[in-house]
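Q: How do we represent a protein-ligand complex in a form that can be generated cell by cell?
A: Start from the inputs.
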Amino acid sequence: MTILDDIVEVKKQELLDYPTEIKLITREKPLDFKGGLDADNGIALISEVKRASPSQGDINNIMDPLEQADAYVRGGADAISVLTDKQFFKGSFDDMERVAKTVDVPVLNKDFIIDRRQIDCAYNHGADIVLLIVTILDDGTLADLYSYASSLDLNIIVEVHDEEELKRALKIAPAIIGINNRDLKTFTVDIGNTEQLLAKYGTDDIHFIAESGIHTAEDAQRMQLAGASGMLVGESLMRSDSIEDKIQELKAGKVHES
Ligand SMILES: O=C(O)c1ccccc1NCC(=O)[C@H](O)[C@H](O)COP(=O)(O)O
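Then emit the C-alpha cells for the protein with LARABZUK bound:
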C-alpha cells in the first residue's frame, strides 16, 4: 500500500457519507483558465495554498488561506490552487470557497477526485478548475469525469506522471495536461520529468502544466523552455516569507509577445 492508496481509500470512505445526489447551486460560469493560457504564450503560474502534505508534514499551517491567496494575486499569480483534502493536507472546502469568493483569478480544487459528486462539491464551493489524476482512475471513469466536468464548464487539468499515464490521458484528448514531477507513490521529485515527457510528446495543441518541485527562477525557466504553458507551485511559496518577491522570481523568465 502506498500513501496514494491510503488517500484514495479515505476518499471512498468519505463518499459513503455523501448524499447519492448533490444538487448543483446556481452560480456564475467558472472563470476561463484555458482561455488565459490560449491568450498568453508565456508561462502561467498557479500558486498553491498547501498547509501540509504527506511528504513534508506541516508546511505552513498558521497562515490564513485568504491572506495567502491575496498575496499570490498581488504578486501576479494567474490562478490559485487550494488543497481541500482534510486528512493528509489539512485543507478544506471552506478554505477553497473563501478564496474563490475573494480572488478574481481562476481557482483550482486540488483534491483526489474519483466520483462525480466530488466535482459537484467543487462546483458548489466555487472552483473554476478541477484536477483528474490519471493514476487513480480507470479509463472509463476518467472519460466520464472529464465529460461531466466539461458539461459544467469547468476547466480540467488531467494529471499524469509518466509516459504510460500520458498515453492514457491522450485518449480523451484533454485541452490541459498536468505533468507531476512528483511520483505520488514514492514522493521522488524530479523536474527533469516534465522535460523528458515534453521532449517526446510536446505539442501546440495541448497546454502542459509542470507540477511540483519548482523552487527557483532557474527551475521555472527550465519548465518554460521545455514547453510548459504553466507551472503549479506550492511548497516554495508556502515557505516564503516574501511571497510577492518569490512570485516575481519564479515569473522572471516569463516571455511575452511584443
Ligand atoms: O505533496 C505531496 O507530498 C503529495 C503527496 C501525495 C499526493 C500528492 C502530493 N502533492 C500534490 C501535488 O502534486 C503538489 O501539491 C503540487 O504539485 C505542488 O507541489 P510543490 O510545489 O512541490 O509543493
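The radius of gyration is 17 Å. The pocket of LARABZUK is lined by residues 3-4, 48, 50, 53-56, 180, 182, 184, 187, 211-214, 232-235 (CB under 6 Å).
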